[in-house]
Amino acid sequence: MSQMVSEETGRRYGIERVCRVWEKARSTFYNRCNSEKSETPSGMRRGPKPLICDEIVFAMVQAYLEATPFAGEGHRKVWAYLKFVEGIKVGRGRVLRLMRENNLLSPHRSRAGQPKQHDGKIVTMAPNLLWGTDGARVFTVDQGWCWIFSAVEHWNAECVGWHVCKYGTRFQALEPITMALNYIYGSSKSDIARGLSLRMDHGSQYRSEHFLKQLKFWGIKPSFAFVSEPQTNGVAERFNRTLKEQIIYGRVYRNIDDLRDAVRTFVATYNSRWRVAKNRFRTPEELRKEWDGSGIAA
C-alpha cells in the first residue's frame, strides 16, 4: 500500500501516511518486515549445520535396530548405543525425530490413567542389599500353563536367578533364589546371605511357612511389597515385562523344554546386552564388572 502512487499528487503514499490512516505504529510495520526476513526457509534446519547429516544418522539407527537381539527398543536405547558404544555425538531429540518420521518408535506404551505413585526408592547404591523376585505364567501347547520364577538384583537390574517349571509351588519359588546364591556367593549354606533383603509380593508361595523359614536359614530378610502398589516390587515386575515383550508375546511354545531354552538364552543376552537407563545405559554385566574391579566391598 505504501508503494502505491496517488492519482492526484503523483507521489507515493508512504509508510508514515499509511500507518497513520490505519492507526498502526510504524514500529509494528518494521518489526513485521524484519521477522519475515529472518524466518528460516521451509525445510531447512535452524542453527549450525551438524557434522553428520540425517541420512547417515538414520542409516546407523536402522543398522542398530536390525542387529539388536531385542524387539521394540525405543529411541533412548538407540541414542545410548550411538553415544556410549559407537562414540557418536548426536542429540537424543534428533534420534527421536528421525525414528518418529520413519515409524520406528517402540510400539510398547504404558496404559492410560493415573496410577497411584510410590514415593519411596527401591534402587540400592550397592549390590547384594536388595533382590526382587516374582513369578509369571506362560501357556505351552503340550503341557498347558507353566511358571517362570526370577530373582533380580535391585542395584543393576541383573537377573541373578531363574526357574521354569510346571507348577508354581513354594518349593519352585525358592529355585531362582538358590541359583542366585550359588552365582553370587558360591554357596547356599546357612547364613550365607546375611544382610540381604528379598522384595516380593503377597503371593501364596512367598507367604508360606516353608518359604519364609528357608529365607531365614539363608540369613535373608523378607521384604513384602505394599498391597495394591506393584511399584514397590518394580524391579522384578519390569524384568518380567521385558521378558514377556521379548520372548513370550506373539510366540507359541510346544512344551516346557522349549520355554526353558528360550528363557536361558534370553537371560544370558539380557545381562550382557540390555542397556538400563539407571545404569547410565550400561548393561548389568558391565556395571558389575566395574564394581568388582573397583575393589569396593559389597
TrEMBL record:
Domain of life according to the entry: Bacteria
This protein's name: IS3 family transposase
Organism encoding this protein: Candidatus Wallbacteria bacterium HGW-Wallbacteria-1
One GO MF term attached to the UniProt entry: nucleic acid binding
InterPro entries on file: HTH-like_dom, Integrase_cat-core, RNaseH-like_sf, RNaseH_sf, Transposase_IS3/IS150/IS904
UniProt-listed PANTHER family: TRANSPOSASE INSF FOR INSERTION SEQUENCE IS3B-RELATED (PTHR46889), TRANSPOSASE INSO FOR INSERTION SEQUENCE ELEMENT IS911B-RELATED (PTHR46889:SF4)
Signal peptide: none
Lineage of origin: Bacteria, Candidatus Walliibacteriota
PROSITE patterns per record: INTEGRASE
Residue ranges occupied by any Integrase catalytic domain in the UniProt entry: 123-292
GO biological process, one term: DNA integration
